[in-house]
Amino acid sequence: MINTPTVQHTPVQQKKMTIAIIGNPNTGKSTLFNLLSGGHAHIGNFPGVTVEKKVGSVTWEGRQIDLVDLPGTYSLAPRSIDEMLAVDILLGRQKGVPRPDAIICIADASNLERNLYLFSQVLDLSIPVVLVLNMCDLARSRGIEIDAQALSQKLKVPVVCTEAHHAKGVNELKAAILEIGTGSTHEPLALFPEDFYAERKLIREKIQTNQEDSPPDFLVERLLLDVGGYVESYFEHHTHNGLMEDLNQSRSRLKEAGYAVPAMEARMRYGWAREMLKDVLQHPPEQRETASDKIDRWLTHRVFGFLFFFVLMFFVFQSVFTWAGPAMDLIETGQGLIEGVVETVISPGPLRSLVVDGVIAGVGGVLIFLPQIVILYFFIAVLEDSGYMARAAFIMDRLMRSLGLSGKSFIPLMSSFACAVPGIMATRVIENRHERLTTILVAPLMSCSARWPVYTLFIAAFIPNIAYFTIAGSPVVTLQGMVLFAMSSIGALIAIPVAWFLKRICFKGDVAPFVMELPGYKWPSPRNVIYRVYNRAKSFVVKAGTLIFATSILIWAAGYFPGDHSEQFEIQNKIEAMDASLAELDEQIAATEADASAAKKELESQQEVLAAEQAALFEKQNHVSSQLVENSFLGRAGHWIEPAVKPLGWDWKIGVGVIASFPAREVIISTLGTIYSLGGDVGEEDESLIGSIRSATWPDGSKVFNVPVAISIMVFFALCAQCAATLMVMRRETNSWFWPVVSFTYMTTLAYVGALISYQVGMLFI
Amino acid sequence: MTLNQIIKGQIARITHINGEDAISIRLMEMGLIDGEQIQLLGKAPLGDPLEFAIRGYRLSLRLNEAKCVEVEIV
Predict the structure, then answer these.
(1) A175 vs A613 pLDDT, higher one
(2) Nearest CA to CA, how far is A492 from chain B (Å)?
(3) Which domain holds residue A579?
(4) Which of A146, A238, A274, A758 has its CA 20 to 30 A from that of B36?
(5) What is the pLDDT of residue A8?
(6) What is the CA radius of gyration of chain B?
(7) Is the pLDDT assigned to residue A320 strictly greater than 90?
(8) Do A518 and A583 sit in the same domain of this protein?
(9) Residues 95-134 of A with CB under 8 A from B
(10) pLDDT band at residue A741, thresholds of 50, 70 and 90?
(11) Contact, B30 vs A488, CB < 8 A?
């Protein structure tokens, strides 16, 4: 099947080879890359662009090889800086990536004619290439016969058949790559008429007058062919002023000669592809309806398609919550156990406070979301791999377009209801940069699960439990439920004008076409699914975890210093000593149970006294803690911002809670707990927290909290960007600090205005 | 007529792609070239986008993009 190489390979085997992998979307490129790299890929971002950087270093038969995975693309005609990246890498113009010694071009064997379009552009790069016909089994099952040997001879490049899903054909592919070796060259295809190359020469001379290094032929070709493309705007900025005029003249001369740009390129390349496949590829006599078509008739059906889609989405999100529950409990228990161990090892003091309240609480607060992210990513990987994701975009496109987005944004936004972190990571399926940025910027407005503790606390404390509609004695519609629903949907509602504004005003004039392939349905490859879930989980833990770790320590320090904690630790020591005595008394009581004598009664009364003393100490400790927080940097900051939050109906304590909950929204609960003299260890359903919040007063004796204040806090937390993990992922995915700053600024503004309106309007009704 | 006007199941031959913008270039890259046959397989539940068969694969286009493609019924 493998053709004899057309180029002589050098016997010297020391030099490291760089191999770029390129192909259309949905050709099984990632699966094949994972197989070839053996799962040893480094994933990051290329500087300056949003495109994922996947590089795998492997050794084949003693030969060191760097595999560079390029984003899936239909063509090498770049329209954005992200698309330009693939061209730059292939031409050796990208810093940090050497010019590839060879290219692996992956094509879908069942859709070869269209896939050869990209391949013909790859041939023009003058780099040795191996053509991989992937999914050969699928092609065969559709009655398509390909003579790979004959195709290889016609194309003059090695052709390898693979079934990446079944890990078949990988060794043949490795052998074909090693045959090529380094330092060999490859003639460009040069499909275009003489007139075109004459114009290319002319343009080259024009741009070279002002440039020292001469751009590769391929770029000059793109400059001439891609009307309004990225190469055009690049050279327009980097060369003389009259470039556009020269280009237009060249293009109109070509048009007169009958070679109108851009139609010429497509016609020539597709003509060539058809010529190459003649006598090599046998189609079934008539286009028969494939199994995929039959499934599609149901899954994109007017009624059933919608129904299936919503049932599936409901199932996915239900699973995210229910399946993640036990694992989250486990993480929480583990966190408690570690805290317990630390508390026995380290005596009360700054170090213990740092480890328990700073590190364990902070990092644990992030890790708790890992199960949800893993489950959600499992579903996303399965949906993508099976081919359904493209249908989801197809079905939702019309609805999403009313927001100025496309169907491809639906899944990322839906995911953000669980947590914006995986949601933002899921935006990678959106190729259009502006659409992707819009989706990333509105994703944190979707009401994630971290907001629920805040809603639950304030609704339980202030919203009366009135039932409006009951069935068989059990309430169906309640005021509390309605408020919870309103809080959960307010962000999504606000996202509509925000997305509209971003698309129409900030990213104006960028209409993303929805020209998308609907790939055939197939069973997802378990290997690929596991690999992708593992990678996402790892990057979440490492990248988001490190930042949360740092921020937690900062916030801890702000709440800890500069106070004198010796009294607090003394009390803490006493309480812990009492714990031991109480436990001892417990044992003694248990031992004396047989004889219900005066001795036992004596012990019990001792225990009661001790317990009462301990309770008093707890109260004192809480008082001391709240004093310490008030005098800490965090507390001072709270006082300092009080004038700003007063119009929202908040006192300085709520201000502190808001500042402290910068790393994660849920932190407001434990901060309020600390400040309202209860100790940090309270939950959102804690009756005593609800009680002390209800009874909190201003210095003049009036109540701090009422319904408008509660609503104002909830609205603030529904709209704010108080989540360091989200901002970090945003930075990583957009490769710039600019977007997280924009997001934080606009969301905080929205949150403030929203809270202000809720309080001020609410007060009119009181 | 244009591609957005054909009905489900109908096969049409492409005669011309209008425009030189990003959308028309993308259409040509995906293999919508004059002389090529294209069939409307169905529509999304809300009537847009559309699903077509061309060159042996399934392509989805919005009504707006299909408008750029001049066709004649075979």
Answers:
(1) A175
(2) 21
(3) 563-623
(4) A146
(5) 47
(6) 11
(7) no
(8) no
(9) 110-111, 113-114, 117
(10) very high
(11) no
pLDDT band at residue A579 using 50, 70 and 90 as cut-offs = confident
Across chain A, mean pLDDT equals 83
A174 and A205 fall within a common domain: no
Angle (CA) A48 A50 A51, round 5°: 110
**Tally of domains in chain B:** 1
Model ipTM value: 0.95
Query: Is the distance from CB of A424 to CB of A732 less than 8 angstroms?
Result: no
Instruction: Give the residue among A197, A257, A185 at the shortest CA–CA distance from A224.
Output: A197
Per-residue pLDDT at B69: 94
Distance separating alpha carbons of residues A719 and A585, to the nearest angstrom: 51
Q: What is the reported pLDDT for A679?
A: 52
- What is the reported pLDDT for A428? 78
Selecting from A114, A263, A293 the residue whose C-beta is nearest the C-beta of B55 gives A114
Cis bond before residue A647 (omega within 30° of 0) = no
Looking at residue A711, its pLDDT comes to 92
3-class DSSP string for A563-610: CCCHHHHHHHHHHHHHHHHHHHHHHHHHHCCCCCCHHHHHHHHHHHHH
Q: Is residue A147 part of a domain?
A: yes
Of A111, A283, A394, the CB nearest to B44: A394
Domain that holds residue B18: 3-73
Residues of chain B with confidence (pLDDT) below 50 = none
User: Using one digit for the tens of pLDDT, what is the confidence trace for A270-300?
Assistant: 999 999 999 898 887 666 677 888 888 888 8
User: Using one digit for the tens of pLDDT, what is the confidence trace for A381-410?
Assistant: 898 888 898 898 899 898 888 777 888 888
Domain count, chain A: 4
Q: In chain B, what residues touch A398 (CB-CB under 8 Å)? A: 44, 46-49
Could you tell me which of A308, A593, A543, A267 has the C-alpha nearest to residue A422?
Answer: A543
Counting beta carbons within 10 angstroms of the beta carbon of residue A300, is it exposed (0 to 12), middle (13 to 18) or buried (19 or more)?
Answer: buried
H/E run at residue A747: helix A738-764
Please indicate, yes or no, whether residues A175 and A205 belong to a single structural domain of this protein: no
If asked whether residues A22 and A63 sit together in one domain, one would say yes
Looking up residue B8, the CATH number of its domain turns out to be 2.30.30.90
pTM greater than 0.95:
no
Instruction: Report yes or no: A629 and A558 within 8 Å, Cβ to Cβ.
Output: no
Averaged pLDDT for residues A44-48: 69
Task: State how far residue B1 is from chain A, nearest Cα, in angstroms.
Answer: 20
Residue A56 is inside which H or E element, if any?
strand A52-60
Q: Give, rounded to a whole angstrom, the gap between the first and last alpha carbons of chain B.
A: 12
In the structure encoding, which two tokens stand for residue A709, read together?
Answer: 């204040």
Q: Which of residues 29-68 of B touch A (CB under 8 A)?
A: 29-31, 33-34, 41-49, 51, 53, 55-62, 65
Q: Residue written as tokens 């005593």?
A: A688
Which has more confidence, B3 or A332?
B3
Q: Least CB-CB distance to A266: which of B33, B42, B44?
A: B33
Asked if A463 and A333 sit in the same domain, the reply is: yes
Instruction: List, as own/partner pairs, every contact residues A592-601 make where C-beta atoms lie below 8 angstroms and the sequence separation is at least 24, other chains included.
Output: none
Q: At what angle do helices A29-37 and A170-180 cross, to 10 degrees?
A: 70
Choose among B31, B47, B53: nearest Cβ to A287: B53
Tell me which of A489, A521, A538 is where a domain ends.
A538
- Residues near B18 by Cβ (< 8 Å), separated by ≥ 6? B24, B68, B69, B70
**In the A/B pair of chains, how many CB contacts fall below 8 A?**
123
Residue A6 confidence (pLDDT): 47
